[in-house]
Amino acid sequence: MAKPDTGVRIRPISPADYLTVISVIDAWWGGRRMADMLPRLFFEHFTDTSFAAERDGGLAGFLVGFRSQSRPGEAYIHFVGVHPGERGHGLGRQLYERFFEAARAGGCDRVRAVTSPVNRGSVAFHRRMGFGIEPGEAGPDGIAVAAGYDGEGQDRVRFLKYLADGGS
Amino acid sequence: MAKPDTGVRIRPISPADYLTVISVIDAWWGGRRMADMLPRLFFEHFTDTSFAAERDGGLAGFLVGFRSQSRPGEAYIHFVGVHPGERGHGLGRQLYERFFEAARAGGCDRVRAVTSPVNRGSVAFHRRMGFGIEPGEAGPDGIAVAAGYDGEGQDRVRFLKYLADGGS
């Protein structure tokens, strides 16, 4: 497994990061309009479980997550982005591990996330990170999906990982 | 002032409300695409500060809000919708008051919200509800706006209300 990239610094996100992030994410997602899915509120009110990764002062990636307010012990990863030129070197893993650490520090013992079943790279990544897939209908490649989870035709794969004490 | 409408029941929101809400909100907003701004996570993880209003089993309105995770004592109202046929009868006020109550019960002493400066109805509503407007540049009608708050050209009026003990 690749060693963590020591040229990248991960730090808590701040409101000042918001305009930077929304100015790049549509391009990072190959032109899809993503900015509406990431309102500023996460950069204001969830800064202790959301992180920016920087290389030489530029944005290399970010993770937006939170502790569930109404489900004690549960944390949720909402949105993760990695600069196209930074992919494949373990930065996603570093961001997730930083989040797991923050979630544990906040009293959580499990983490959830969802993704689209067509996003096979994301499904494979979550499996490598130790997430299980929640039961559902049989989707592409036999992966269990929650049909219409995010609206009509918007099936989602639901991931769940239990955090071990100390390790990840 | 109008008396609260006793034919409407306000209750905590639940995941089962999500598909109902996103199926109506674009129409409630006159056709604007709003569903992306309201991800399902609020209906899963913030159900103790988010509410649905029902009349005869149908959705009359809803409010999605939360307690700030990283700013103790602060609460935030993200999204409020009222059925076009239910407007002008105090349902928005009822939803806000229910949220203030939940915010106080959760240890908060202040509530924030933002709106677009062109939404004069929303600016007037928040003033009636006791919100002050945070300092900013002079916008339409001399209202202070935070320029580019939600991205380029996306100015916002920022509201802040301190909650009194007991009352609203």
Would you kindly provide a written description of the structure presented here, covering whatever features stand out?
The structure is a homodimer of 168-residue chains. The first copy, chain A, is of the alpha+beta class and 168 residues long. In chain A, 24% of the residues lie in helices and 27% in strands. Chain A has four helices and nine strands. Chain A has helices spanning 18-28, 41-45, 91-105, 120-128; strands spanning 9-12, 51-55, 58-67, 74-82, 110-115, 132-133, 137-138, 144-145, 157-162. In chain A, strand 4 (74-82), helix 3 (91-105) and strand 5 (110-115) form a beta-alpha-beta unit. Chains A and B meet through helix 1, helix 2 and strand 4 of A and helix 1, helix 2 and strand 4 of B.
Sheet with most strands of chain A: 7 strands, mixed
Radius of gyration of chain A: 16 Å
Unreliable stretches of chain A, pLDDT < 50, 5 or more residues?
none
The mean pLDDT of chain A is 93
Structural class of chain A: alpha+beta
Main interface pair? A-B, 29 and 29 residues
Amount of beta strand of chain A: 25-35%
Quickly count the helices of chain A: 4
Overall form of chain A: globular
**Quaternary form:** homodimer
Spatial strand sequence of the major β-sheet of chain A: 1-2-3-4-5-9-6
What is the H-and-E element order of chain A?
Answer: EHHEEEHEHEEEE
